[in-house]
Amino acid sequence: MALNIKDLKITSPDIGPDARLDDRHAKDRENTPPVLRISGVPDGTAELALVCHDPDAPLPWGFTHWTLYGIPADTKELGSDADIQFRPGPNNFGAEGYGGPRPPAGHGPHRYYFWVYALSRSVEGAPSLREFLDDYGDAIIEQNRVVGIYER
Questions:
Q1: What homologous superfamily does CATH list for 9-150?
Q2: H or E segment at 148?
């Protein structure tokens, strides 16, 4: 399946273009996920998946802050209750669900990519980010992201 990069959109009233995330989203504060709005879901989408990943973390594969599965294709908004409404997967904090930014103090700004994936088939269970990409990479019809920045 050819990758389509023109229709799927993800935006957030809580995240300006490459803007700093508010402290309420941080792991050691309120740990509240930002509101995310989804539009332009392509035809043939069976399900959406969401990932929040920090590629700036000083680890070989970065740091996964959120994996979320079982999101119906007609979903327009993910709110602070997304972990209750849908199926949270593992994060690199050793838990499931949203784990907000918590970069090492003094490490400088980190980018937090909130990726939405339109999938041609549903995700089974709650895989890690690596398992998801390995097992469902061929099912990605389209993907897009919004990026926030956080620093301590």
A1: PEBP-like (3.90.280.10)
A2: strand 140-150
